[in-house]
Amino acid sequence: MAFIQSLAELLNRNELTELTVKREYDENDRLTVSLSKQSRQIAVQAAPAAAPLAPAPAAAAIPAPASAAAAPADDPASLPGIVTSPMVGTAYLAAEPGAAPFVSIGQQVSEGDTLMIVEAMKTMNHIPSPRTGTVRRILIDDGSPVEFGAPLMVVE
């Protein structure tokens, strides 16, 4: 934990948005730690490379400094119609690079329509709309890392 905290401090101190550290101990023993700044927090995911098919350990979040701890008035997680990530992974707004996005702001969607894809462990998971409505906000960028429960979109 101290190692990850020191990496988070390094990330903040140098005003970086992303940091990856790879350690190779021997042929079958490697560790990769990736840190990426997201809205008011630093996401940390550490997964040993020796077991590629095993589930990754739960991601730990290191809170931001106390000055940023106050929740903004329009916290995305509290908005009605919020669609959250069902898993940890990388969110993509289109099926492939350069393709049209699945949805855009103001677009009408039906329950079950694909809103985006979250890639987790080399698997592309389509995220369906939980309701019929209009896409009001898209809260992530294409290719952004997301955590379980992270707000992705608002469909009202």
TrEMBL record:
A GO term for molecular function: acetyl-CoA carboxylase activity
GO cellular component: acetyl-CoA carboxylase complex
Name the UniProt record assigns to this protein: Biotin carboxyl carrier protein of acetyl-CoA carboxylase
UniProt keyword annotation of Cell division present: no
Pathway of action: Lipid metabolism; fatty acid biosynthesis
Keywords associated with the record: Biotin, Fatty acid biosynthesis, Fatty acid metabolism, Lipid biosynthesis, Lipid metabolism
GO terms under biological process: fatty acid biosynthetic process
Lineage, highest ranks first: Bacteria, Pseudomonadati, Pseudomonadota, Alphaproteobacteria, Rhodobacterales
Chain ranges of the Lipoyl-binding domain: 80-156
Pfam families: Biotin_lipoyl (PF00364)
Annotated function: This protein is a component of the acetyl coenzyme A carboxylase complex; first, biotin carboxylase catalyzes the carboxylation of the carrier protein and then the transcarboxylase transfers the carboxyl group to form malonyl-CoA.
Coiled-coil zones: none
SUPFAM superfamilies attached to this UniProt entry: Single hybrid motif
